[in-house]
Write a structure and sequence with these properties.
heterotetramer, A mainly alpha (261), B alpha/beta (308), D mainly alpha (234), A: 261 residues, mainly alpha, 2 domains, three-stranded antiparallel β-sheet, 10 helices, 71% helix, 5% strand, D: 234 residues, 7 helices, 2 strands, cell membrane (chain A), transmembrane helix (chain A), membrane (chain A), Cobalt_transport_CbiQ (chain A)
Chain lengths: 261, 308, 308, 234
Amino acid sequence: MIMMDKWAYSSKLRERNPYSKLLFGVGNLLICVLCRSNVVSLCIFLIMLALVVLIGKMPFRAYLRLLCIPLIFLVISTITVIFEVGHVESAKILVSLAGGHIYMTKWSLTRGIQLFLSSFASVTCLYFLAVTTPVIDMIQVLRSLHLPKIVIELMYLIYRFIFLLLETGNAIVVAQDCRLGYKDRKTSVQSTSKMAAVLFVRAYQKADALFCSMESRGYDGDLCVLSTIERPRVPEVIVMLAITLLEGIVCYYFLGNMPAI
Amino acid sequence: MKELKDYKGGHALRTFNLLDEQYHKPVCDMHGDTMIEIKNLNYQYEDGTVALQNVNLTINKGEKIAIMGPNGSGKSTLFLCLNGVYKPTNGSIQVNGEPVTYNRNGLKKLRQIIGIVFQNPDNQLFSADVFQEISFGPMNLGLEKEVVRERVESVLESLHIQHLKKRPTHFLSGGQKKQVAIADILAMKPEVILFDEPTAALDSYHSQLVNDLVDELCEAGITVIQATHDSDYAMAWADRIIVIQDGKVLVKDTPQKVFENVELRKKAYLEEPNVLKMYNCLCKANIIEQTNNPICPKSIDELIKGLE
Amino acid sequence: MKELKDYKGGHALRTFNLLDEQYHKPVCDMHGDTMIEIKNLNYQYEDGTVALQNVNLTINKGEKIAIMGPNGSGKSTLFLCLNGVYKPTNGSIQVNGEPVTYNRNGLKKLRQIIGIVFQNPDNQLFSADVFQEISFGPMNLGLEKEVVRERVESVLESLHIQHLKKRPTHFLSGGQKKQVAIADILAMKPEVILFDEPTAALDSYHSQLVNDLVDELCEAGITVIQATHDSDYAMAWADRIIVIQDGKVLVKDTPQKVFENVELRKKAYLEEPNVLKMYNCLCKANIIEQTNNPICPKSIDELIKGLE
Amino acid sequence: MSKRQKLVFRASILVALSLGIAPVTSAMHIMEGYLPLSYCVMWGVLCLPFLVYGVFSIKKQLKDNRRLLLIFAMVGAYAFVLSALKIPSVTGSSSHPTGTGLSAILFGPGATALIGIIVLLFQAILLAHGGLTTLGANTFSMAIAGPIVSFLIYKLVLKCKGSRYVAIFLAASLGDLFTYVVTSLQLGLAFPSTDGGVFTSIGKFMGVFAVTQIPLAIIEGILTVIVVIALESF
């Protein structure tokens, strides 16, 4: 079970129009990335938290757990950005190595903190989308952007098949575990590769079976289905667009210290 | 499972308004006309395995047919032949008096008349959500979008699963998946529906639901062919039983005659239905009077009713 | 399926030589000792769904237990808790008088004692060929290669599937896959085997085979717990039936008492077994004399024998 | 498909898998909001020709064989699932073999890029691996650069009459390494050092990620070989 997917379907914001949600989420994301301002990041972080947890009714603990996922990457790369390697004598030297020094400067520290906060805020924007808008709705929005039909078809199919294979894969892992297949590292590697191999075989068999049943319903190369989503309600979309733009302008004029990028 | 509690109520009448429009002929009229005629059908897989051998069958309109036989005996192959997914190596299939043609139009026509509900819904449902899934068949028939929308809504209503409309397929339970798989086919308004072990792996609640649904379809005049392993069920439900083994039709006859045949039962690994056992025992013990042409009740329930 | 024709012959005695070595205590001795004791078991999924609530169960050595209840009622979760794949959120499980520990050694011990045969063999079999598949469990127990080889051979012989030894698993038929799935577990020589709907989606021939096998295991003194939807079968086979719904144990009692409870049957969607219907009918009609403490036969066959 | 076609197809799957499991770890997905917008756009634009070519290439292949649509989708789902499965105590905390390159040889780099970008999009939305603004950069490193290198190495080793398992191992582990090099490059370009400039920065990122990525690349190489051996026995 993929938890983000589950939260998206159980969110109180699920039924809101996907166009406006996407507009708002992506709009805020762009503001985060463009401004790189600590204050803006903090504000957006709080707005998204409020939307997802207070209005969307996602459990706070689950949300916290989600926030931990990108931490590994964030911490490692931010440390890399903050600390410099070289021969500069004037900087605040932390460690001296044979060939040079590892040091940080005020500028690199500021940049690191900015980067950390703004990335974290952008992640909350992504989460806002991910846990309030089911994937099916998102694909629907992409469809109305006139992406090539084949891309849309593939997205729908891959989304469905992910869960089909995930179920099989998980079941196989559990069955292996029941027979002590993950008792130590060596066994684990063997079990994992066997699982990967058999999952591939199963994927192939499933594709065959599904094709057969699709043919029996008259599939002849053109995958046509109807969807339930309603057209964007124009007023709602305009309101969301206005809010996002306003946010952007406020950030730009009052807080914006747009870095030269 | 709240939604389903309503189901067993007085809905039966309302349920097949969708189908009644189409099949407005009274049932009795239809019975007897030949729906499908299979002559000398042979099917051989690419690898040379012979899956069907000299199959001859006539299926009448509105008939209830159970196909029995061990796994791998050729039932699924027969279904896929009937639906035009497999092209027979030899022999011919006539549907509604016309031979099946294997060009695009011929197949489209065939698939509108005959639909298959596959055994494992996970091998049938390919769409991300229920509405899309059910709309696939009707869209392939080339109907207008509005017509398709209406059909899907109407099928959802008939099966009392409107609440599933926007549900993503992967959130459905096994029983719900089965219902959607059936809706898939009903939305194409076929005249014949082939069910491949529709209640396998379902719990008794959903099995009952599916069995009731099948009964309603039959009442609405649809020809239903079911592959099943359940002797009790086949005895109770079927007009005729076709026993297949190793790709050959062993026998096609009424349930009682099929199950009374001890040799056949042994050969095709058919269990004797409980009701038949009981009936024979009661006859022997002279609790039930035996006439010259004894007709066994169809189920234990019927037998009990008779005794009372 | 030639291989299986021999099976029904006089093999029963020979079949469990493999197991007899291990379980040399006579059956009667074992019955009555507590095998598994579950106290106040709760299990909650990550997303907060409560799958099991305050489950209290005692399972004795050598008992035959059927677990019934709709799909999604928590049967599979219970199985996975018993096997240590899921760690209970609350409550405790004692096996052979010792509480389960969830470290590496504790789990190893637990999984040697309790084995699960999963419902869908396609989700259990992952090796390329049958021999590899069956040897997986014993290998992980850390046995010598020679011992593993012997065990696999011996299990293959017991199930009369030696001829499948080198067959690739994905070329097996559904029934054969099930047999291999059972062999998987038998090769680990567990004291308790949990079967999750072992005959779902099998044809009647293989169902019979599996049922016979289960009976032999029980005779050999193994504690067997089966999840099933088949009332007739549960009535005939089980010592006790445990009914689960929405993660709670509704009742644990003898089959007759469970099925005589009309309210319970309705609530948990259990069908009334045919034999019970028939028995009650015959009692009413005064064909069978009713005593003060009527004991219903276990199956239609037994009932018929009684009548004769 | 005819019998022979099927055989060729199965064989090609084997070959594909051998280099296909381009091992990528979730730690190497550049997270949401980490790259400056101009770089996001740049990497996105760089992916475009591959994606457009991918659409044409897929359409062309589907014309010959409709069944391929489902196979394409299954390959995508397979790649995703391998990174999403909860596997108890395996190689390392965050190592998954992902099959984005699986289709490189089967269906060509174009089709792979297209399937890859869809998989990466789903990984961002469903698993929080990567992000929307960094989708272009991640696609370039994982769905375009890595698979192409794996593919070339595999062909090269075979041409030099190297053993197939060696070829698989090298393709898998070097493909992994190349993805990590490209990712470091992307990060280094975006965040140049104060004095050393871009190259120092790239070196820094490579140095830091080397700690996790080099052992993982080797483990993934071994894992891939075992998978292929297992798959061959089917």
